[in-house]
Amino acid sequence: MTTHSTRMLILGSGPAGLSAAIYGARAGMRPIVVQGIQPGGQLMTTTDVENYPGFRDVIQGPWLMEEMQAQAEHVGTRLMYDTIVEVDLSKRPFRLIGDSGDVFEGDTLVIATGAQAKWLGLDSETALQGKGVSACATCDGFFYRGKKVAVIGGGNTAVEEALYLTNHSPDVTLIHRRDSLRAEKILQDRLFANEKIGVLWNKAVERFVDGGGTAGLVAIELRDTVTGELSTLDVEGGFVAIGHHPATELFRGHVALDKDGYIEVETGSTRTNIPGVFACGDVMDKVYRQAVTAAGTGCMAALDAERWLAEVEFEMAEAAE
FAD/NAD(P)-binding domain location, by residue (predicted)? Predict the structure, then answer.
């Protein structure tokens, strides 16, 4: 068992965690990033990225994360391959134990563990991810300009995604397995008033249909949840919008979470309810969920942590005089 100590311990290595690392390293915090179960975060499974500032051409998600990682290491970050299984945030330094048995101690802790989109769990869905099936309209909607698309879900996220897609598509279908939506009434009113959107009630997705070759998604096979009847909807884009899982189970009972499991932070800040612990990226952001906003809050977390630690150390020095 080895103990690794740092002034800034970062858990998670997506855009939020690596941005925090870059800013933390430049502030002399000598950060350690524990990369977790998915090094690089969700962008490692994203092919074309067209909306990250600074690149006129489409870039690849894994390449972007490799560049961020290289930059973080270049300015002095240590990246550790481990998965945290236990945390102790009751005192400083904060103590995290990895699956390897190694102990990670940080004077400050930045949580950037992200969130995962919920999927339907179909084999055809997995096979066509990035080939017509997506879980993020704001990320991928631009690729479906002028094409017929569908959104699966019935909550706020699904309705918001459907409304957003009308910026690109003249024909959007919302597919919901029940006969009424869970979304807020004001969103439902906007949905029903939009002539570009149609709704299919009591329909569950049986299969995403692959057109073969380079065609990708060409249709969605549906089953009526009342009659069991099968039908087919021709589409070129299918957006699964049934929610997200924030990766916060490890911190339940340690850090304040909201009703959906996201880490609560002070408004306009990345501070959690525990002094010295900060959260950034999709683990605390249920609204935007973009790589660029995750990177922005990662910067905020590093600056918040550095300033907080400087204040604590100044007060300790004054008290010792």
Answer: 7-298
Range of the domain at 186: 120-241
Alpha helices in 177-290 (DSSP H): 185-193
User: Which positions ≥6 away from 291 have C-beta within 8 Å?
Assistant: 14, 15, 43, 49, 52, 64
Specify whether 237 is located in the same domain as 249.
no
Longest distance between any two alpha carbons in the chain, whole Å: 80
Q: What is the CATH number of the domain that holds 84?
A: 3.50.50.60
Active site residues: 136, 139-140
List beta partners, residue 224.
203
| Residue 283 and residue 142 in one domain | no
Give the CA angle between residues 267, 270, 273 to the nearest 5°: 80
pLDDT of residue 1: 80
pLDDT at site 316: 87
| Domain identity same for 236 and 268 | no
Mean pLDDT of each 10-residue bin along the chain, 321 residues long:
95 96 97 86 76 90 93 97 95 96 97 93 95 91 95 94 96 98 95 98 98 93 98 98 93 96 97 98 92 96 98 88 74
Encoded tokens for 5? 């100590």
The structural domain count of the chain equals 2
Co-location of 140 and 74 in the same domain: no
